[in-house]
Amino acid sequence: MPASVKKLKVVESAAPAGSDVTVTPVQSAQDREVFIRFPYRLYAGDPNWVPPLEMERKDFLNPKKNPWFEFGNAELFLARRNGEVVGRIAAVDDPHWNDFYKSRTGFFGMFESIDDPSVARGLFDAAASWVKAQGFPEMMGPFNFSTNYECAVLVEGFEAPPAVIMTYNPRYYDALYTGAGFTKAKDLWAFELSTSVPPPERVVRIAEKIRHREGIVVRSIRMDDFAAEVRRVKDIYNAAWEDNWGFVPMTDHEFDHMAKEMKAIIRPELVLIAEVKGEPVAFSMTIPDANYALKAAGGRLTSYGLPIGLVKLLLASRRIRRVRLVTLGIKAGFRKRGIDAVLYLDTLTMAKKLGYSGGEISWTLEDNVLVNRSIEMMGAKKTKTYRVYRRAV
Fold this sequence. Notes:
Number of helices: 12
Helix content: 25-40%
CATH architecture of the largest domain: 3-Layer(aba) Sandwich
Shape: globular
CATH topology of the largest domain: Aminopeptidase
CATH superfamily of the largest domain: Gcn5-related N-acetyltransferase (GNAT)
Number of strands: 15
Strand content: 25-35%
Radius of gyration: 21 Å
CATH class of the largest domain: Alpha Beta
Number of domains: 2
Distance between the termini: 26 Å
């Protein structure tokens, strides 16, 4: 059955004029399996692609297990040529985005295609027809299924594998998007920072001065009080990002679900909460780059009934030497006071102490000048650019 949790208008089939490509909705369990498995064939032999765990992808697309489907809707499509699957896409309705921004925008995500403009156009047109049938004049993406999850297309920085929970795609995707009439909506940036290079003395001096002047106390998350800590972080999160482009508030169920998944991989020492006079006013979350371990597992925890993938994942996880700073937020009223510099410095210091060689800070908005400047002041270098596209339907 389709991924949609409500009965919406669906597109039965689509194909570009004069093309031998047919695009149809996912209707059966077999179709869904093919939808999930297609990227494993598409990226076979690509040394930088990190195969996700199949079981995780199945749960992500399961309305009974993914809390996003409590309010959102998605229709999955497969593109075939002569019976062979050559691409996939999801058309997405995210009412929380439109409620928050007072907009009428449809979305798409989970796009994968061979290097063929007719295949890509067939997929985009199918998603556009579905979005239009829901009453939306434009669509934007890719979002899987919102900015709270994987999103955007890699357009610069193909030399290294993606960090955990970041996207990866072939170089030809940008041409497929622009060839199908998409234009840039926003660029997202990723930065690289090494723990082997000491932070600039000026940054350290300023951060320590701010820490003393503002009375900032930075502590690690308390795992023995995890539920309460999640509530504190949630309050900061919703207050810190509400003015940023792309921000969509998470429901309590979404946030708790994500926290539960993150609990298995976080290093408590790298999840920091900054307090002023006992009030939590900022937090940052840095996690081990689990993609190193996921790549070793090859997408499956079992093979021929044996836990081969699980063993490989566990062994590889012990050798993770990179991290990703996923998020850093500060409540209004405490911004532009240098708290971000304190959190960056403490994260860098702790990551080095724990034996990590460095990692990625991602993602930031291209036009968030203050944040990007603060990151660069720590000695980080921009290494990747991701793009969100839009087009009328």
